[in-house]
C-alpha cells in the first residue's frame, strides 16, 4: 500500500479538531492546566503533547491493524473484552455528557449574540446532523476545512499580542522547576482521551500505510503544542487580567476592535461544533452495531433527546459532569499507553 500525504493531513486535522474544544480555544484549559503554574508550565505542555502523541498513535495503530468500527472494539484490545463491556456504558455516558455541554455552550454563545438560547441549541443540532449525513467523509472534510482556519486565527492572535507585549525569554522557562506542574500535564492528556478514542477508533479503514499514522500523530501534536505554547506565554503576560475574564482569550484582545471580538466568538463556536461532531460521530458508530439505522439518523436522534437537558445551563453542566469522568479518563489513558508493552509481553 502506498503512503498518502493528503490522508495524513486529514487524519491530523481530525485529531486537532477533536481536541480543540471550547475549553482549549477559549484559553481556559490552557490556563487551568498549565499557565496557572507559572513559567514551569512550558515543560508540562511538552510532557502533555508527548503523552498525547503516544496515545493517539496507539489508538490509530489498533484501529488500523484490527479494522475496528467503534471505540468499544479498541477497548476490548486495550483492557480485555470483559472489562471493556463494563466500561462501554461509562464511555457512552461521558460522550453524551460532553455533547450535552457542547449543545448548551452553543446556546450560550448565540445568546451572547442577542439570539435565544434555544436557537443556539437547535443550530448546533442541525449543523452536526449535516456533517453526519456524509459519514466519515464528512467528518474528515469538515476538519480539513475548519481546523486550519481556527488554528491560524488563534496563532495570529497570540503572535499579534506577543509582538506588542514582548516575547518571553528562554532563560526564565529553563530555570523554572518543572516538578509541580507535571501531574497537571498527565491530567490534561487524560482529559481528551475519550473523545479521541471515540473518533480515531472509527478511522482504521481509512488508513493504508503506517506512515500515515506517524505523520498524522507528529503533525497534530506539533500543531497543538505550538498553539498551547503561544497561548500559554501570552496569558502569562496578562495573568493579572485572566481572573477578570470567564474566557481568558478575551484578555488578549480586550483592546481590539469589535470585529476581532466577533471573529473570536465565531472561532469559539466552531471549536464547540467540531467537538460535538466528534462525540456524536463516535456514539453513532457505536450504536450502529445495535441499531440498523444510518449514522446520521442515530446521531440526530441522540441530539434531539438531549435538547431538553440543555436547560440545566452551560456552567452548571461543566461543573457537575466534567469531574465525574476524571478517573475514567486517566485509567483509559494509562491502559492505552501500556498497550504496546502488554502486547509485546503476550507475544
Q: Could you characterize what this model shows?
A:
By secondary structure, the chain is mostly helical. It has one domain: Orthogonal Bundle (Hydantoin permease), CATH 1.10.4160. Helix content is 78%, strand content 0%. The protein is built from 18 helices and no strands. It has helices spanning 5-19, 22-26, 28-33, 41-66, 71-79, 81-112, 117-132, 135-165, 170-175, 182-191, 193-200, 210-237, 239-242, 249-252, 258-287, 295-306, 314-321, 326-346. Helix 1 (5-19) packs antiparallel against helix 11, helix 5 crosses helix 18 and helix 10 (182-191) crosses helix 18. It is globular. The chain starts with a helix and ends with a helix. Residues 170-179 have low confidence and may be disordered.
The count of β-strands is 0
Name the quaternary structure: single chain
Structural class: mainly alpha
The name of the CATH superfamily reads Hydantoin permease
- Major sheet attributes: none
CATH class: Mainly Alpha
Order of helices and strands: HHHHHHHHHHHHHHHHHH
CATH fold node name: Hydantoin permease
Please tell me how large the radius of gyration is: 20 Å
**Beta fraction:** under 5%
Task: Give a quick rundown of the structure.
By secondary structure, this protein is mostly helical. The protein has 18 helices and no strands. It has one domain: Hydantoin permease.
Amino acid at each position: 500500500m502506498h503512503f498518502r500525504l493528503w490522508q495524513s493531513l486529514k487524519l491530523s486535522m481530525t485529531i486537532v479538531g477533536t481536541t480543540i474544544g471550547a475549553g482549549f480555544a477559549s484559553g481556559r484549559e490552557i490556563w487551568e492546566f498549565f499557565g496557572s503554574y507559572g513559567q514551569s508550565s512550558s515543560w508540562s505542555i511538552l510532557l502533555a503533547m508527548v503523552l498525547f502523541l503516544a496515545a493517539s498513535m496507539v489508538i490509530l495503530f489498533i484501529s488500523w491493524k484490527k479494522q475496528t468500527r467503534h471505540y468499544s472494539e479498541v477497548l476490548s484490545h486495550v483492557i480485555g473484552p470483559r472489562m471493556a463491556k463494563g466500561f462501554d456504558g461509562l464511555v457512552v455516558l461521558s460522550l453524551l455528557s460532553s455533547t450535552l455541554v457542547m449543545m448548551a455552550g452553543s446556546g450560550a454563545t448565540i445568546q451572547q449574540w442577542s439570539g435565544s438560547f434555544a436557537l443556539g441549541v437547535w443550530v448546533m443540532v442541525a449543523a452536526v446532523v449535516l456533517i453526519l449525513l456524509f459519514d466519515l467523509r464528512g467528518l474528515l472534510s469538515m476538519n480539513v476545512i475548519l481546523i486550519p482556519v481556527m488554528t491560524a486565527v488563534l496563532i495570529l492572535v497570540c503572535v499579534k499580542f506577543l509582538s506588542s507585549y514582548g516575547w518571553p525569554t528562554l532563560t526564565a522557562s529553563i530555570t523554572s522547576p518543572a516538578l509541580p506542574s507535571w501531574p497537571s500535564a498527565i491530567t490534561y492528556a487524560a482529559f481528551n482521551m475519550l473523545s479521541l478514542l471515540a473518533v480515531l477508533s472509527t478511522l482504521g479503514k481509512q488508513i493504508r500505510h503506517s506512515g500515515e499514522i506517524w505523520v498524522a500523530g507528529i503533525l497534530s501534536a506539533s500543531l497543538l503544542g505550538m498553539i498551547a505554547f503561544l497561548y500559554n506565554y501570552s496569558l502569562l503576560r496578562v495573568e493579572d487580567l485572566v481572573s477578570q475574564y470567564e474566557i481568558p482569550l478575551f484578555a488578549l484582545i480586550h483592546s481590539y476592535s469589535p470585529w476581532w471580538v466577533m471573529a473570536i466568538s465565531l472561532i469559539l463556536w466552531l471549536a464547540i461544533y467540531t467537538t460535538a461532531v466528534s462525540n456524536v460521530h463516535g456514539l453513532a458508530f457505536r450504536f450502529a452495531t445495535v441499531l440498523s439505522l444510518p449514522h446520521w439518523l442515530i446521531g440526530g436522534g441522540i441530539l434531539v433527546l438531549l435538547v431538553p437537558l440543555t436547560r440545566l445551563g452551560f456552567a452548571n453542566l461543566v461543573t457537575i459532569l466534567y469531574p465525574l469522568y476524571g478517573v475514567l479518563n486517566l485509567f483509559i489513558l494509562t491502559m492505552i499507553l501500556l498497550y504496546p508493552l502488554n502486547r509485546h509481553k503476550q507475544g
